[in-house]
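FORM 7B: Structural annotation worksheet

SECTION A. Query
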Amino acid sequence: MSALPTTNPSFAQLLRVFLRIGLLSFGGPAGQIALMHRELVEDRLWVSEEDYLHALNFCHLLPGPEAQQLATWIGWRLHGWRGGLAAGLLFVIPGALVILGLSMLYAVAARLEWFEALFLGIKAAVLAIVLQALLRIAGRALNTRFKQGLAVGAFVALFLLDLPFPLIVLGAGAIGMAVAALHPDWLALKPGAGNAPTGPRPWRSTFEAVAIWSVIWAMPMLLVAMTLGRDHVLWDIGAFFSQLAVVTFGGAYAVLAYMAQEAVQGFGWLQPGEMADGLGLAETTPGPLIMVTQFVGYLAAFRAPEPFTPFVAGLLGAGLTTWVTFAPCFLWIFALAPWIERLGNATRLKGGLAAITAAVVGVIANLSAWFALHVIFTAVGETRAGPLRLYTPEWASFDWRAALLAAIACLLVFGPKWSVVKVLGVAALGGLVLGLAT
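SECTION B. Predicted structure
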């Protein structure tokens, strides 16, 4: 790692710049990472190019949204714990407030005819956006035959065998760590720089961070358990999204199908098409796409509010979801940031990450297939053939309007390469026209 940043900002300057980043961080992780690079590396020289890229690679190793964790690391690097906390929160809060407002509107208007027509187009656009993400990540990640095999295996395990998503992620990581030690070329691993630092290891700061942030992470769950009990919907929300926070490698697209299946089939919180609606809302707001979890948490509590009113229960569900989704992100960064220089040469760790990234391509392919079925058909069943789980759409439920809008959205995404916001806008308008005219 290089020396200290060329310019050392004041804490007030850090707050102003990260508030600006939080308000402008549209476009998913790629756009957010590019925005921070321009603001912090190129324009203000707060972080060197070498440090920025090294920290970005480190954040890719962690579960959770890498852009938000990178912002937290930069704040920590510049102003310690308070800087990391400020930068991480400012990256999240603007988008969280916007999607909270949109979730509240959705909860009360979802059954209105014009609202359903609007989201007919949004769901179709989301299908095109997910396909674009799949091809982008596949082109970048699947650069060896072994990685391609991992991606295919992950898709088969999820789509046909219905294996648990956490098992796929953790299994891919274990395979990658083993392969990195025996055949690193299978994962296209580059040798480390060989300049790991010497001196005392930062165990104390790591243990302090783990202790403090574990308590912060668990506090609302303890409060729910003591006041409402473990059979309340808020306990289910907190426990589920805490688990999700530990296995969220590869971003929101990677876990969305698993989250949708659990929220729809496991808990009964949402209808199948509503997850696509939530991702459409998250795509149009600043901040990490994983904020779609807040949409799910709001609706889950809103629809089972006792002993609260639906509005109060929805707020509690959204707040709890956001808390248990992002508290772990601060834990990972504050516990592991002092080790970032040493981890740069961890070949097995890099192998685990490379394998997980390859498997995530298969995970997103599963999401694409799941979305396509549930967007284009309004009724999709499941059948079992031995160990295989097969989706069986009802052909009479084919929605030609959704298929047409999805095709138009794909043409705009892959042809003139329109931005996400533009594609969502055109598809939403098309949904209104077709939905209200038929």
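SECTION C. Observations
DSSP finds 17 helices and two strands in the chain. Strands lie at 380-385, 388-393.

SECTION D. Sign-off
Analyst initials: ____
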